[in-house]
Structure formats: C-alpha cells, structure tokens
Amino acid sequence: MMTHNDAVYMDNNATTRIAPEVLEAMLPYLHDYYGNPSSMHRFGGQVGAAISQARKQVADLLGAEPEEIIFTSCGTESDSTAILSALQSFPEKRHVVTTRVEHPAVKNLCENLDRLTGHKHRLTRLMVDAEGCLDLQKYEESLAEDTAIVSVMWANNETGVIFPVVEMARMAKERGILFHTDAVQAVGKIPINLSETDIDFLSISGHKLHGPKGIGVLYVRRGTPFMPFLVGGHQERGRRGGTENVASIIGLGRACEFVAANMADENSRVKKMRDKLEAGLLSSIPHSMLNGHKTDRLPNTANISFEYVEGEAILLHMDQYNICASSGSACTSGSLEPSHVLRAMGVPFTAAHGSIRYSLSVYNTEDEIDFVLEKMPSIIAGLREMSPFWKAEV
Ligand code: PLP
After folding, report:
1. Cα–Cα distance between 290 and 279 in angstroms, integer?
2. What does the pLDDT average to over 74-98?
3. Is 331 among the catalytic positions?
C-alpha cells in the first residue's frame, strides 16, 4: 500500500494526514474506552469527561467557550445547520446573502433553500473581482430588512483568498443580522479569536487540520437563536442528536492543539516554501499565472493556471512522479466544468481549465518543493506539444 512516505503530498486543502499524536489520542477510545458517554455508570462517564476535554481544546483554539462548541459529522453538516437554523429562527425573513465562490456545502444548500424549506427565498450571491476579493460597499448595500443570515467563507478552498469576515460580521450585527462563516480552510492556518468578533456561527472540519474525517464542529455564539438540524437524543445539550463519534471527537480536540502549536511554522516555513514554489513555477513556465490575491491569502495555498493545457492531464502526469495536487476542489473534480470559483473571478477559459492547486502543510519539506519545481516545466511543455490550443495561439 502506498503511504504518505512515498507521496509528495500537496493536496492539503482536500484533506490532511492525521497527525501521529492525534491517532495515538484516538486509539484508546476505539478499544478500551468504548462506553456510551450518556450512560450513568463510571465506565461511560469517563468517556464523557474526555469529550469535555476535547470541547475545551476546540474552544481554546477558537477563542470561544466550551458551551459554544457543538460536535457534528462534518463541515457540510455544520454549514447546513447554521443556515437552516437561522431561517427557522426568523421565518418572516426570507433573504440570504452569500458569495459566488462558496464551497458546494454552502453554495448548493443556498441554491436549494426553496425545496428544502418549502418557502421562497431571495438569494444574493456577491461577486468577486479578478483577484477573488469581495467589494464591501456592495456587501453593505445587499443587507436588507428581511436578511435572515449572511454566510461567507473565511478562506476560499481553491485560491486560499481570505475574506474580511470580522468586518463583515460587524456590519451584519449593526443591522441585527446573523452571520455564519465556513472556516473549514481557515481554522488552524491563521489565528482566530472569536471572542473579539461578532460572528454568530462558524464551521470546522476535522480532516482539514490533521484530525480524522467524519467529524466537524459548529460554533454557536452564546445567546444566538438556534434550531437543531438533527433532532433526537439529548446529546450536545439537545442541539445535535446522535450518539457521539467519541474517538473522532477526541482526535479533533488533539488536532486543535496540534495546529495551535504549529501555527507559527505554518505562517513562516510553510509560507516561505509556498512562495518559493509559486515564484519558481511562474518564472520557469511561460504563460502561467497566479489565481487569487497575492497577499490576502492562506499561507499554504498556491493556485496556478498553465494556459492551453488541461488540469486533469497535468494531474495525471504529476501522479507519475507521485506528486499529489488538485485541479479545483476535490468535491468538484470528476466534472469537466471549469471551477465556479475561477469562473466567478473571470479567469479566461483557456487558463481556468489548466489550473492546479498546490496546498502545503507542515509535513512538506524544502526537498519536495525542489522536486516539484524540477518536474513541472517538462510536464507542462510536454502537454503543450500535444495541445491544439497551444499550437493555435503561440
Ligand atoms: N467548506 C470548505 C471551505 C471546504 O473546503 C470543505 C471541504 O473541502 C467543506 C466545507 C466540507 O467539509 P466536509 O468534507 O467536512 O463536509
């Protein structure tokens, strides 16, 4: 079986390696401590205590209170819960503000609100400019009397572009509008302190921060009106029914400590490696361009278009050297449509099709960067030799 030791893994916005210390923390909860945390006996009770500790670890990373943390099954569930909760809490308000570049977890939910809720909704999807940034003036103009919730991602999964959600949440709060942010890509990569913001809901996914898959968190600010998505038992203080995914909750708690301890490395060494990769690719490969703002961006992400070649073909050639990256988000690959994010930014068709997202982590090394920089120019040149678009244009 291929392991991470063989792969040059630069697809960390799709998913991350479970940190060994995270796995180690989880294992006892898969064999020894299998009690149900809701049970009255001590055997279950000790599991409940471990969950409380994990809740505190998550809260500490976010600058939140443990009571504001609800464990869910994934980032997608957290996103759905926040938006549908706001619409149920304010049934008279039928307007939702979001952006054109959200992850499908928010984008597709918002596009299906009428069907899911049985009510007609008005949706404002904010445009982005060529660098993937929002216009705050336009945002302010979109906020209306009947706006129930704003949902804007903290950082974009494809380009890494960071949105000014703290400022946007303040503007929403001034008008009595709830604010949700999908922070699945931001948490663990950039510092976040929710106690200093007006954000009401925030979504996390465990597998993007060196934790396990199938576990998420929804932060709900104390006092925010809330309607559960999964109605059942009294777990999560009645805010999310279903027996807890204990081992994964423990793993996510430990992962939050791991990313907090590595935050400085992420923003110095990882960022430096990303900058070297980006500068090297742009200078050695003609007709290549960066997608996304040069500086308002996550430290680990570089999205680069190689004009006149196909992203899927590039990935296949990279795969021969065991280099892992992505041509858009993993959730949208499999379709030949160019990414909705790059289209919203107005990236020309010939460039959008040849975009590759390199997303690094603290496990990457300088040698790996050099290896990718050595292999990419010949991969692109070889494909261009075969490309009818390249021959027609150049
Ligand atoms: N939101 C963003 C920005 C993401 O990048 C992802 C995953 O790619 C999700 C939500 C969905 O998270 P999950 O896979 O835990 O449902």
Report:
1. 9
2. 97
3. yes
CA distance 106 to 112: 10
Q: How confident is the model at residue 6 (pLDDT cuts 50, 70, 90)?
A: confident
Domain boundaries, the chain: 8-16+263-393, 20-257
Report the phi/psi class of residue 15: left, alpha or beta, with left for phi > 0 and alpha for psi in -120 to 50.
beta
The answer to whether the CB of 202 is under 6 A from ligand 1 is no
SS3 sequence of 236-300: HHHCCCCCCCHHHHHHHHHHHHHHHHHHHHHHHHHHHHHHHHHHHHHHHCCCEEECCCCCCECCC
Whether pTM > 0.85 for this model: the answer is yes
Largest CA distance in the chain: 74
Contacts of 319 (CB under 8 A, 6+ apart): none
Domain 8-16+263-393 has CATH 3.90.1150.10: yes
Statement: residue 257 has pLDDT above 90 = yes
In the predicted model, what is the mean pLDDT of residues 288-308? 97
Query: For the domain with range 20-257, which CATH number is right: 2.60.40.10, 3.40.50.300, 2.40.10.10, 3.40.640.10?
Result: 3.40.640.10
| Nearest CA, atom 8, ligand 1 | 14
Q: By the 8 A CB rule, do 110 and 123 touch?
A: yes
| Alpha-carbon span 222 to 159, nearest angstrom | 32
Mean pLDDT in residue range 102-121: 96
Out of 74, 103, 163, 189, mutate this one to test ligand 1's pocket (max ligand atoms within 8 Å of CB): namely 103
Q: In the numeric block, which tokens belong to residue 92?
A: 């008279």
**Is residue 157 lining ligand 1, measured as CB closer than 6 Å?**
yes
Using CB atoms within 10 Å of the CB of residue 280, give its burial: 0 to 12 exposed, 13 to 18 middle, 19+ buried. middle
Structure tokens at 38: 């809701």
Predicted confidence band of residue 382 (pLDDT cuts 50, 70, 90): very high
**φ, ψ for residue 296, nearest 5 deg:** -75, 70
